[in-house]
Amino acid sequence: MKLLPLRLLACALLAHVAHAQSPLTLDAVNSLKPLGANWQPAGALAGNPRLEKTLVALPGTGVLVNNPTPSARTHLVTAWDHGDLDLDVDFLLTANSNSGIYLMGRYEVQLFDSWGVTTPKTSDCGAIYDRWDATRGVGKESYDGTAPRANAARAPGLWQHLRVEFRAPRFDAAGKKIANAKFVRVLLNDYLIHENVEISGPTRSALFEKDPEAPRGPIMIQGDHGSVAIRALAARLLDTPPVTTSGLTYELYNGAQKAIGDYATPASATGTLPQFTISPIEKSGKAALVINGTIHIARADTYTFTAETRNSARLLIDGQTALAPLELGADSRTLTLAAGAHPFRLDYHQVRAGRPSIVVGIRGTGLQPQTLTYVAPSNKPPAAPKAILINPTERPRLQRGFVPFDPKKRLYAISVGSPTGTHFAYDFEAGSILRVWRGGFLDTVEMWEGRGEPQTAEPAGPALTLNAKPTVALLERSAFDWPDAPDALWSSQGYTLAPDGTPTFLAKLANLDIRDSVVPGADGRSLTRTLTLTGRNTSWETHILLAEADVITPQPDGAGWIVGDRTYYLDLPKGGTLNPSIRTRNGRQQLTVPLSGGKVDRTLTYTLVW
After folding, report:
1. Interatomic CA distance for residues 292 and 308, integer angstroms
2. Do 271 and 176 fall into the same domain?
3. Do both 223 and 263 map to the same domain?
4. Stretch among 131-145, 385-399, 446-460 having the lowest mean pLDDT
5. Do residues 175 and 59 both lie within one domain?
């Protein structure tokens, strides 16, 4: 088992390889092939990568910047190889830039500035790129690529996150490929864009495009197409052999039992099992089943055990609790196990009527999630996930419903969809924009399927979550903390609809009347918010919260602010009078506007771009 997070230090990347017992630090020579002149270490980025073609590197560590030139356009290649792995990486692109990450040096996930693309293709960001074969004929050379389910790409100059769960191709003892490489899951900015996608061979421009496929290979990041920055690259190598069981015996106790391990009557049946299964227990009625055997661990590691069951169960390994019994189910536990054979005991207590069932799983640092209990093969295709999608067509669509938002769903909220493909969720209680997203509007299956639990309206496209704090607040002093809940003097007054169906939200805060309009940009890339406040201030200070994040920095051209760790942009209109300031509270920065004077008649406009 190896865990390889890569960090950039000084003039190169460092890789830390964590083994089960102790970490081993490698230098850059061991972690990467020699870097070309187009790759430069940095601590952060300057300039304006939203508009400029070349990235400007600031001194420091943590980021690797690629600016290709005609004479320097090498790829970044790891000095270590991998097979199965889970990969996480942050990347940042300039406008119209192009790069790619090749698993095993062969299978590319495309990195491309696809901001604003409505229907992504196999050349867009997150796509599994095409293979290429000139012998297929003109116009047919590209094949076997897979476009992402939706365009989850963000604007140039923003950090984006890619997660890839990859399984290498399989080969028999003679070296013949018996299974294709597979992208089990690919998430771009936390949105699932691929699931169980096989790729029949190396994609175009691979490091080993014309070589035979192999069980292992390095990670390669393209450096010859466009400017790209990389950071926080972490690869979890899933090279621990599967866990197995042997010597399985069972004891069946029919009838109601007091509790796990408390069986008042002798076993009604005993025997051996060819597989780890609870098949000896009857299909209905109360009973208990005890299975004893040996579990074989190929590599010392920390292992987590899980169970899916509607009955009580306990798993002991070497006498240690791996699954703790619950009244209906079993609680997951984590154990540190040495390589070798370990005796185990599973107690399954059937306390509910119905078909007995338990699925015991295990996962480790270097072990991909695995099912220990036997699951009979099925010829039935997996059931498609249920969905009830609604999308606006000719005019905005407003849908009342609970909005999912940690740590609790928002009960008095509304989702607003636009035919432009840009949508948002709004909280009436706080007058805040909870979330913005592009693509599909809403999946209402949790609202309308069956009993409608948990009754939430889920975004049907890639979303950016904001904060739920009140937009307008009364502070006794400007130094005070921003409230987490709306003021007692706040009240929602509903909303009005423009002729085209666009809502304007209405509210009152003490003697202030508030009109809040959120309008998607015509290109589907932004949302413009206009707040109009009229009336009189109270003796307390009135403030407007535009954004909150760990860090908020001015845009280099003075056009607005960069919110968070290059998470989104807040643009201000040219020639506007909005002059927000930054205040820091509890380690967080807040972009706010105070409203001074007794009489208030103020309009504020800004645009969210992500």
Report:
1. 19
2. no
3. no
4. 446-460
5. yes
